[in-house]
Amino acid sequence: KKDIMKKQALLVLLLSVMTLSLRAQTSPVDDLFDRYDGKEGFTSVYISSKMFSLLSRIDSNDEEFRNLVTRIKGIRILSIDSAKNISGVNFVSELMPRLRRNGYEELMTVKEENDNVFFMIREVGGKIAELVMITGGDGSSVVSIRGDLDLKTIASLSDSMGIGELEELEKGKR
Description:
6-stranded antiparallel sheet, single chain, alpha+beta, 6 strands
């Protein structure tokens, strides 16, 4: 009977350790969204792959558009509401060091007066699995785009979303 209890205790311990290690492996972007999602003073938006699937049916004649939306798995946006006085929160300083430690590479940086915009990517198997855009300065926001992406896809997306800073990416090497 003691052996059974020891085995059960060991099993519970192993499951606990595995659960903690899996939880510790969430991405820095996921952690940031989990921390601020639904909190007062923050706005979060999630656009699922199902929404993109529906969009691909709307204009079935535009092959480039259909290719674009079928490759996107989801878009998440988190921003600080400008009307609220949220002090001490800066997504750039909070996220950038963790992204670098977790294998994200800096793709591009745009600096203007008090504003900074960073574009970071995470690659898996030679493809861009996630593009993260972080703004800091007078306003702070994070946009995460996940999917099976390449620079042409990102450039097409930037064109359709009006993100002028990304338009030159199609000429890149990735």
